[in-house]
């Protein structure tokens, strides 16, 4: 049951003195914490309403085939929930289904695996996000060992800073199951990766990599050497900025090799300075002693001369870049371009991005054209148009802008007869990208959708929520209006007044 109640107040703060303002600050924090608890309790209650096994009964086999099965989103000892139920509660909360699934996992862990910590949250004494982080960190622990974490964190979560609480949690997780922790350490050594963060509003992006220690030394040495070369041309830049620019050269191996070749030095370990030359990478050392890195990159003089004379242009990588900008920007008006995968860029940033590349401009698509196909499958040209119109997954509050999606027929596919158009025909008028999970829910979980204009989609959820997704984003609408849009004659797109 939902146990917390929160009163939302908008007090007049102008009459408060310093002491009263401090008291109001304390009360506001507690109210926020209780509101977060209430949000999680509603989510847990929804899970309780959908805890029965949908595969029981005479139609159980059908439910199992479609994928509506009980899933355990939390750790060991938490109750399971029907998979198909997760989509609608995510829509009601106005969040993506992954965020809702993560929140549900956290609250079930807190209620059933970390009850002492949860009681602190319900009392408004602890930051809910810290408790959720502890739940996530400890999720792999068996039920009979997670109590060690629960007891320790409940004692400190309202008395220590968030950073210290999480440090204690990490230590207690190791203490609770040291063998499992060691196994995870070994597994993590095999999980090398390179990851990209989101592009920020300044066109900058974070790269995070986990690589072999030796490779990391090589990369750092190359960055240091390129930074040394570039530093004289960047007198006003700090060390970190120069290194960041140097790192960018790694993405252009042709230019990088040319730069390093132009700044080769004689090998100091060679008695004949003209026999070999090396790419000077500074003081980096790989191996048992100094000199290993330098010697491994030594070039015979004739090879070095040949490399310098080569046209390395064919080695440059080929990429496809999708840039969206308004016609006014091309006519000289100040504007912002949206670069797929990189985010918003000013025109000067875009010029810098493309300045060193050989650019081939593809024909611009007129997205106002209505394109149809007589086949069930979506041709690649049609997928391109649909993606450019929608910008990504058309599920309510979906976060994905990827092109790696399913292409759905909002109105079920129906082949046109005698060359005539059909409302269910494949085309820009009846097509929308959906992630695989969203596509499965839309098809089998009782949702109704219809495309009602270019990039405009109406949804009705199993319990009657009305949602509209268009170029402005996702918003709730009156269910009666949603039903009107859905039931309108084919070819008629309704726009009810809010």
The overall average pLDDT, rounded, is: 81
Count of helical stretches? 19
- Classify the helix fraction into a percent range: 40-55%
Give start-end ranges of low-pLDDT stretches.
1-8, 269-298
- What kind of sheet is the major sheet? 4 strands, antiparallel
N- to C-terminal distance: 34 Å
Widest sheet: strand order? 15-16-17-18
Q: Can you tell me the overall shape?
A: globular
Q: Provide the gyration radius in Å.
A: 30 Å
* Helix-strand makeup class: alpha+beta
Number of strands: 18
Strand content: 5-15%
Quick rundown:
The strands form 7 sheets. The protein has a 4-stranded antiparallel β-sheet, covered by helices on one side. With 498 residues, it is of the alpha+beta class.
Can you walk through the features of this model?
By secondary structure, the chain is α+β, with helices and mostly antiparallel strands. Helices cover 43% and strands 12% of the residues. The chain is built from 19 helices and 18 strands. The chain has helices at 18-49, 60-66, 85-93, 97-112, 115-122, 128-137, 147-156, 162-176, 178-189, 213-230, 239-248, 253-262, 292-296, 301-309, 327-330, 347-354, 380-390, 436-444, 479-487; strands at 70-71, 81-82, 193-196, 207-210, 265-266, 276-278, 298-300, 323-324, 336-339, 343-346, 372-373, 406-408, 426-427, 432-434, 448-451, 457-460, 466-470, 473-477. It has a four-stranded antiparallel β-sheet with strand order 15-16-17-18, with helices on one face. Strand 15 (448-451) and strand 16 (457-460) form a beta hairpin. It is globular and about 75 Å long. The relative contact order is 0.06. The model is unreliable at 1-8 and 269-298 (pLDDT under 50).
